[in-house]
Amino acid sequence: MDSADQFRFTHLPHPAPVSVAQRTELLANPGFGRVFTDHMAVVRYKEGQGWHNPTIEARAPIALDPAAAVLHYAQEIFEGMKAYRAADGGVVMFRPDANARRFRQSAERMAMAEVPEALFLDAVRELVRADRDWIPSGESASLYLRPFMIASEAFLGVKPSSEYLFIVIASPVGAYFSGGAVSVWVSEEYTRAAPGGTGAAKCGGNYAASLLAQREAKRQNCDQVLFLDAAEHRWIEEMGGMNVFFVMDDGTLVTPPLGGTILPGITRDTLLTLARDRGLTVREERYGIDQCYADAASGRLVEAFACGTAAVVTPIGRFRGHRGEIVIGAGNGADPVTGDLREALIGIQRGQRPDPHGWVQRID
Ligand code: PLP
Ligand code: COI
């Protein structure tokens, strides 16, 4: 592939796409992550050849050698991002460049070939264009994009793969949580990531490691799991699939700092900026679980919320764990700071509010 052809996607349209009537029915109530569009973007990598054969093709099962490295040593990373239907019928994306950068950083940590950011963005945009009719227009609906990369070399020796598949799939989604405030189980037994580990990378292995704790949370009638640090089992880190914020009675926001063990969430970063724009004091600092329980009891801790691409901003109504249960605020999610930040974020993401930081990109 010479440089002029680089990243020029070949389009192989689906020979039998979903009918308009069926798509309309699917889009009416898509849930989260079970409905998929007609196409996918696929780009291959081979050592010595680099990235090649970018295509937009019919979404279909992929053929993998049973010895493919991803199946044995979990060399896999992914991203999560959304395209929205704007009020004028156009299509917008929110900070896709930040996902491209984080994907490259995840690849670096997992010793994988790095996808050039321009290629990542082209793949995502080409897929959104091909499947734009799949973008739902409801209030909390969007097209969730899932770029991912797997190690595809057939070799059982333990080493970084010399071949990769970079794929983007798309899924029309509604809200991740059914509504209201979520309940959170504090995991004392299992940790998610340790210093020097892969906590800051968006690799599938981190999620595999979280599932037992998430199952425990469900058994305890909680929606999500909260992980503490691996060294002292004391400092609040993040949830299984989202970052966490706390709001104090003086209006200060507290969120755990990025230190290599939590995912550097793009929503987290955005909310820090939006909060500062509003004149709120924001502290990225360690917050102990004992302090959290004490602050809830004294009334100092007035709100808490989860944030992420899937979760957007979701109020936390209660924490449960071996040390008992605490209710945050009224426990029903009617929290003013959380609500204000959520509205501000959604308004910008959907192109309904001014975008002073240049976060929103239009897809023509
Ligand atoms: N933390 C984890 C473990 C996640 O899976 C996610 C979701 O992507 C987040 C945090 C939030 O990241 P972002 O806001 O970039 O979606
Ligand atoms: C996302 O928010 O994009 C994630 O990857 C988290 C997962 C819970 C869907």
UniProtKB/TrEMBL annotation:
Cofactor needs: pyridoxal 5'-phosphate
GO molecular function, a single term: branched-chain-amino-acid transaminase activity
Catalytic activity: L-isoleucine + 2-oxoglutarate = (S)-3-methyl-2-oxopentanoate + L-glutamate; L-valine + 2-oxoglutarate = 3-methyl-2-oxobutanoate + L-glutamate; L-leucine + 2-oxoglutarate = 4-methyl-2-oxopentanoate + L-glutamate
Annotated pathway: Amino-acid biosynthesis; L-valine biosynthesis; L-valine from pyruvate: step 4/4; Amino-acid biosynthesis; L-leucine biosynthesis; L-leucine from 3-methyl-2-oxobutanoate: step 4/4; Amino-acid biosynthesis; L-isoleucine biosynthesis; L-isoleucine from 2-oxobutanoate: step 4/4
Superkingdom in the source lineage: Bacteria
One BP annotation, GO: isoleucine biosynthetic process
Transmembrane segments: none
Keyword 4Fe-4S annotated: no
Stored CDD domains: BCAT_beta_family (cd01557)
Keywords for the protein's UniProt record, in alphabetical order: Amino-acid biosynthesis, Aminotransferase, Branched-chain amino acid biosynthesis, Pyridoxal phosphate, Transferase
Enzyme class: transferase
EC numbers on record: 2.6.1.42
Record's function text: Acts on leucine, isoleucine and valine.
Family, per entry: Belongs to the class-IV pyridoxal-phosphate-dependent aminotransferase family.
Protein name: Branched-chain-amino-acid aminotransferase
Species name: Gluconacetobacter sacchari
Upper taxonomic lineage: Bacteria, Pseudomonadati, Pseudomonadota, Alphaproteobacteria, Acetobacterales
